[in-house]
Amino acid sequence: MYIIKTDDEAWEAPISHHGPHYIEYNPDNISAVIHDAHSEPTEEKDDSSQEPQPYILIRRQKPVHDVGLSKGNLVLNWPIPRRILDTDSSIIRDDEFTHLRYTAVTCEPVEFRSAQFTLRQQLFPVPRHTEILVVVSLKDEDAWSLNQTIESLCNSIDHICSMTSEKMWQHEGWKKIVVCVVGDGRSVVKPRTKAALASLGVYQDGIARESVVGKEVTAHIYEHTTQIRVEWEDSRQVSLKLAARMPIQMLFCLKEQSRGRVDTLDWVIRAFGNVIEPTMCVFLDPGTIVKKEALYHLWRALESEPLCAAACGQMEIRFSLKSFFSNPLPMVYHFEQKWNSVVDQPFASVIGFAKVMPSGMSAYRYLALHNDDGPISRYLAGAAATDSIGSRFRSQLAGSAMFPLEILTQRHYRWLLRYVRASETVPGIPYRIGHFLEWQQETNKRDFYASVYGIANLFSILRCQHSILRKSLVVFSLLHHVLELVMLWFSIGNLYAIFHLLSAYLCAPDLAGNAGFVIGRILTWFYWLALFISIIQSFSSRPSATPARLHLSLSFFWAVVGVWILFAFIYIAARTTSFNTTSYNATVSNMRFFICILPLPLIYAMGLLIFTFSLEPWHMLISWLVYTLFLPFKINHTNTYLLHSIETLFSNPMQEPDLPEKLPAVTSIGGRIRFGDGDLDIDDAAIDAKWYSNVMKFAAPPARHREKRDPGVILRTVVLSTWVFSNFAIAGLVTNLLGPGWDYRRGKKFAEDVNMESGTIYIGVVLWGVSWLVMVKWMGGLWYRGRVIFDCIT
């Protein structure tokens, strides 16, 4: 029983054992509303022997002073602002659409179900089956990014529910999809982002409690089925409109403390997933725009192939040529994403080991995630003891590499991980140099962790039920990762060695002579200066903490170095190649330099062929030159930030967030919980005023702030020194032992002698090694495209 006090009297109303009567949504019969959400509750006969209700229905009256607990937990069914309901006269007035369900969780995720917590989908007379659980992991992203993702998800849900040819979605498919937004810490999630959710009715200020009867609250859960969308009229104003077709079931979990992505997935899989038991979980990042058909194609991939445990889509870059040529960063970003979707992911999918990540647009079969011996137990091992170096190591690996391999190698299963090219998402394009470098840092970190974890678990593939051929292909792909990791580690030294050798060759009297010597010397001096600056500034682990002008200056210089290297390759090859020979040995000797640099045009030819085979040759033609000139900047500047990622493998990367603001507590007197006067103000005017304040926060432009500087860490210095020393060592050995010395400068050697140099052989080994790594993936990409075309024909 709860007590509601009015101005002149206090009356008692019993707690209903069934809670609000949720009316099943029927778009053809909107008037079928039995319960008026705004009417006063009717009195019922009290029967304390019955089970308590799963929540407490709060009506629009004066402040509530004390109420009973629901199975020992604080659960409130809170009215949403009238302004949302007044948006359109056709809005359904059922409790599902007019009330926000708030739950103060006082346990850990693994105890969620045993502690008698539940979710709204289980409270209907016939519990709803959840086919798809869409998870948006929210940290400190801005409101605009979150709103873009939610809006695109609404369109994708509308599309999948319109697929009446599929039996699953023939009748009210929206009830089988839940969109879950998980905020990593109450003090971390920005106020404007919470305001964006409040504008949809999914969040309200003033409801959350800090503790319930002495038990600390670990998470705040808000549930609401929204019928409205948010539209930006301009940069300052937003407007609400009625949903075009389907309502959206939304769940907002705001964690009290920031514990990272591992804890977020713990809440999703072992708490929420254990209650609603979805068929598949889809993970998204805020800012990712989901194309209309993307969600359907991911679901279809898992539905049509029972052995498919996970699937990921591709990223489609939206661009205009005008913006590309005015800013080369989106062009580089576009090329890398396209290469990944055309070459890397198809190669991995052919093997059955696509790199699906929890942070990307990827779908997981819940059965493959949630079992006692599944990957979730290992994935969450790193979160249990943050003081252990080994646990932090596992925690860092979990965020990028553990899921795919652990799913693939589960005992007694033959799970496969597929790439679904038809499922497209549009990521946010980094137009600013700081944001671009942070994206590069995260990409390098992900690939490095994947390689490290693959090496450490190379033979774990033997425990699964895959065929010998499949196991061999997976081991081959892991060894391929090892070679890529080696090339990445020594990339700085190899690039400088090639730069030095080419500059020395150009000093030959019949090539560039003195002009080549002067230009090469000047570039060498600035090369060392720029490399030194890049290494020093990488101690600030976030690229955005460094002034953008420094990044831009270094990028311009490294582009000049790229032009110089490209010119040297073409010019020296043209001057040193002779076809006027009759014997095979003489031909090889006279064309040695050309043969050594042949991988460069070969790589571009393979890329153009596979892009053409994918019906997208313009992507290669538009971006390849800019990306080529960007490579020195990526190797010498961007990759230095990788060392910070290596350092976080052995140190705690979590920084202490700001303390969240104090919330009211819930006390108990005589077995009942008590609120302070005015703590739960449910007056219409008060609720609308708070909602309007949130909408104004959402509409207002975000405040600018300076990026924080990161402190240096001793371990980071040790790792960085090791990497730099190993690269300088290989560069020194090559330039001194294999280099031509000053003979070209003194005029003792000429162009034809370049073919006989040991340094030329070294250039050939490096370039042919890179081309072999690319060729392997290229063949996998061709096989994938051929299989897709064959499936379409048959």
UniProtKB/TrEMBL annotation:
Query: Per the record, GO CC terms?
Result: cell septum; plasma membrane
Q: Where is each Chitin synthase N-terminal domain found?
A: 65-131
Enzyme class, top EC level, equals transferase
Q: List, alphabetically, the InterPro entries matched.
A: Chitin_synth, Chitin_synth_N
**Topology relative to the membrane:** Multi-pass membrane protein
Q: Does the keyword Transmembrane feature in the UniProt annotation?
A: yes
GO biological process terms held by the UniProt record: cell wall organization; chitin biosynthetic process
List residues traversing the bilayer: 473-499, 511-536, 556-573, 593-612, 618-635, 713-739, 759-779
The cross-references to Pfam families, in alphabetical order and at most eight, read:
Chitin_synth_1, Chitin_synth_1N
Q: What is its EC number?
A: 2.4.1.16
Instruction: State any single GO MF term.
Output: chitin synthase activity
Reactions catalysed, semicolon-separated, are: [(1->4)-N-acetyl-beta-D-glucosaminyl](n) + UDP-N-acetyl-alpha-D-glucosamine = [(1->4)-N-acetyl-beta-D-glucosaminyl](n+1) + UDP + H(+)
Q: Which domain of life is it from?
A: Eukaryota
Keyword annotations for this protein, in alphabetical order, are: Cell membrane, Cell wall biogenesis/degradation, Glycosyltransferase, Membrane, Transferase, Transmembrane, Transmembrane helix
Cell compartments where the protein resides: Cell membrane
Q: Please report which protein family the annotation says this sequence is part of.
A: Belongs to the chitin synthase family. Class I subfamily.
Q: What does this protein do?
A: Polymerizes chitin, a structural polymer of the cell wall and septum, by transferring the sugar moiety of UDP-GlcNAc to the non-reducing end of the growing chitin polymer.
Protein name listed in UniProt = Chitin synthase
